[in-house]
Amino acid sequence: MIDEKLKSVYHDIVSRNPAQQEFHQATREVLESLGPVVAKHPEYLHAKVIQMLAEPERQIIFRVPWADDQGQVHINRGFRIEFNSALGPFKGGLRFHPSVNLGIVKFLGFEQVFKNALTGLPIGGGKGGSDFDPKGRSDAEVMRFCQSFMTELYRHLGEYTDVPAGDIGVGTREIGYLFGQYKRITNRYESAVITGKSTEWGGSQVRTEATGYGAVFFAKEMLEAQNGSIEGKRCIVSGSGNVAIYAIEKLHQLGAIVVACSDSDGFIHDPAGIDLDLLKQVKSVERQRLTTYAERRGGVTHHPAGSVWSIPAEVVFPCATQNELSGRDAASLAKNGCIAVVEGANMPCTAAAIDVFRENGILFGPAKAANAGGVATSALEMQQNASRDSWEFHYTEDRLAKIMSNIHDTCLSTADEFGRPGDYVTGANVAGFKRVAAAMMAFGLV
Ligand code: GLU
User: Which of 91, 214, 287, 367 is the most exposed place for a label (fewest CB within 10 A)?
Assistant: First the structure.
């Protein structure tokens, strides 16, 4: 429920941003957490800091023309939402996927502001992308698209201004083409203008693994706070992209067993535990579908229809995309003995699903906290670039683990302080909000 004092704020957001359902959903969830905060700190209402936060500082929408290998012309749309720079340069990934539109990029940018604040590192929030679909495109086509995209975007970027990275559909290959074009146009080797770079040219160790590893570190903290353990737990990790693969890797390292994952053609059930080497070969090297994984490995069933959430598991990690886990999925998880849900993707659980978790006492780690490991390690990449240094894997992984543990503890103590003990959603929203709001109030009306 949104507090009476904040209802008009929400209504304004909806009426000023029509047809942006995901943005409404993301802002609504934050406003539901802020009731106890404005009761304690009416100065936030007076300064209209929440309204300021819901309005991006700058929104860039541009045309991205490119030609495919047959010489056919395509026109895509590019976005960069520079949401909030109170704590540092705009920071957040680029998503290349046909579903990308203004509402999606705005919800992602809004979430990013709070997530980045929670890391405790000096990064503002932004997000961008395009409705370009890299699936089935040749390397040369992806290169031409990335060059066209950057030819327009470069003027808005800079290590002190706006620092993109990857997201769905944007990995090391795309980051290479984007950085290469930026370097060429500006005639500057400005490493910290983009993160998620290859470790061969300015990237950080652990950045590739960071979002998945971070989500598992967060789950470990959540379970240990209840005197439980991740070891021996049966898990589902939805998706099979970068976040999912490294969540599975860390779960296996910690002695958990992952029995299912998915892609846009369905899901696989592998009761013996997913063969990670085969999964990496199929998804990351060959860029094939999970049907190929099922063909090559015995004892696995592939399900083109139905829901990956129908499989019994104790701890589950939605790591695919927004709103992939519905209220009905949540009910089926509850019935099958699920004890914890930890978001690796951005906003993968619907509001109805989160209600079901609350009603059933299922621990819930929201994305703003649980998947902050990716962007936190991006900030570590920026630190290394700024000092022209590169850190070792274990040192960087320890830094990530410490950041995740701090975020976890901050969420719990903030939830306690604002009268909702154990509620990580309130903890993440309020702690992130307070940090950004303090800086915004200090800067005045800018
Ligand atoms: N796209 C990732 C996220 O959702 C990472 C962003 C970044 O590293 O800047 O947080």
Answer: 287
